[in-house]
Amino acid sequence: MTTWRSSQTTRETFSSSTLNPMKLESAELRVLELPLKFRFETSFGAQTKKEFVLLTLHGDGLEGYSECVTDALPLYREETNRTAWIMLEELFLPLVLGREFANPEALNKVLEPYKGNTMAKATLEMAFWDLWARSLGLPLWKLLGGVKSEIPVGVSLGIQPTVKQTLETVQKHFEQGYKRIKLKIKPGWDYQVLEGVRAEFPDLTLTADANASYTLADLPTLQRIDGVKLDYLEQPLAFDDLVDHARLQKMMHTPICLDESIMSAQDARKALELGAARLINIKVGRLGGHLEARRTHDVAQAFSAPLWCGGMLESGIGRAHNIHLSSLAGFSKPGDTSSSSRYFEQDIVNESLEAVNGMMPVPQGAGIGMSLNREFLERVTVKKVVLGRFNS
Ligand code: OSB
Ligand code: MG
Known about the structure:
The protein is α/β, with parallel strands linked by helices. Helices cover 37% and strands 20% of the residues. Strands 7-8-9-10-11-12-13 form a 7-stranded parallel sheet. A 4-stranded antiparallel sheet has the order 4-3-2-15, with helices on both faces. A two-stranded antiparallel sheet has the order 1-5.
């Protein structure tokens, strides 16, 4: 019987475990379309629905679930729903179906030679973690080495038509107890709105996310933003840049947090070493899965850099994965995984994921602790394929 003395003990025990090899028998890929309750506008575009790929893995009479964080278009990073679907259907799933894996490390070895496509890879790895954790009868957070039973969360608020509307939505979420408010900004919609919110909410933990929409030519604007007392400024410069971020950080007091630029634990190490960022936004779906997310967490901790868990407007499946990961000790700042009911009238899971006073409980059931609402799932499915049932 294993005892849970520390996250390290948990990691070693289960990373090397061959207790429960899992044979992957078949997989189901779906594209789902969920209407959003609000129009979500960022510097790269606006969306009114969440279109995403859902993966179910079957093995040992159990199911494991994950969702891919890609969107229809490559506006955040390069991958899209279609590229992820192709990589999963034509390469990654055929490589693993019919095979047995001792643990997620063994599964990842198969994916490792293939460059990039971290969002597609994460989808497979995350579903495997869920399935494997269910087969062990343990909640995912324990296997990952989590230490918290609830996590602090904030909200990410899209660009509003006016400053007045921004103040209203900030007020509403502030009253709901969210621990941090992040505002999306873009050139032409930045200092004025941030300053307006700061004037009304002098003590609010406020941040801004530019989603890569500035360059060093915008330095005068960025230095004005530096006066708003943001907790941090997220991804001001290009999605693939570290060097200019390091230059910018030298010219600003506000800590820079990188999101898009960090695709691996090595990227985090390089960014922190260069001074391109002082904080990291971890997204398991961007980093290629829980193992790489955990390595990124460990790198940030080694640099004493704060980190937090981002979101991509996930349904209850991806949201639950994010919450389990956020239970690790290094997630010192509030994440973006707010209540599911903020985003969707109806989620695809039966369990609720609701924050109370800015604290989100970590699900305690086996795996991610989520079950699918089958009837609703069918209604929102726009494409479906089953793989491997006859060739394993
Ligand atoms: O940059 O963090 C981001 C949503 C889609 C794409 C990128 C980002 C976001 C968010 C929303 O900020 C976070 C959430 O509420 O899930
Ligand atoms: Mg971001």
